[in-house]
Amino acid sequence: MPAYCSRRKKCSEIGIKIYRTLVKQTITALTMTRQYISSGSTFETQMAYSRAVVASDWVFVSGTTGFDYAAITISSDIAEQAEQCFKNIQAALSQAGASLKDVVRATYVLPDASSFEQCWPAMQKYFGDVRPAAMMISADLVDARMKIEIEVTAIKQRSNSID
After folding, report:
1. Where are the domains of the chain?
2. CA-based max dimension of the chain
3. What's the CATH code, domain 34-155?
4. What is the pLDDT of residues 14-39, one digit of tens each?
């Protein structure tokens, strides 16, 4: 058999292996199941959303406010609300098998942009070493008692330690 024929056969075999791998990856992506995370908040039922959605290694945490869901209360202090937001996010991430260390993106929404600096200590406490990409938006929130809402996206790490 000429040399070019054996190379062609070898290339063909490699091509078939690559093709099979790509097909498996595509099927996996198309059939990926979602895991829905709930905090038990009545807002989730009323507004038809999940606290978080897990898709593959990605975790998408919905906008989270400073409500203490155990006590069904919300502080009037923005710094305390920011702290509670992070606790709520931490709980959702934990249910998803992730942690705050996995967060790659954060969006902060505040009705009063001038109060954002009061949230920085909580941000430093929970994201000091993580340093996700971030953005702050000034916009009204659903309830006038809410002074901050935080949304995050995380990618679960392979060797993950839960906070």
Report:
1. 1-31, 34-155
2. 82
3. 3.30.1330.40
4. 767 777 777 666 666 555 688 888 88
State the average pLDDT for the chain: 86
* Euclidean distance between CA atoms 96 and 37, whole angstroms: 7
pLDDT of 55-91, one tens digit each? 989 999 999 999 998 888 999 999 999 999 999 999 9
Question: Which tokens hold the place of 129?
Answer: 């070493």
Nearest to residue 104, comparing CAs of 81, 135, 80?
135
d(CA 100, CA 124): 12
Which residue in this structure is represented by tokens 């070493």?
A: 129
Rounded to 5 degrees, φ, ψ at 97 are 80, 25
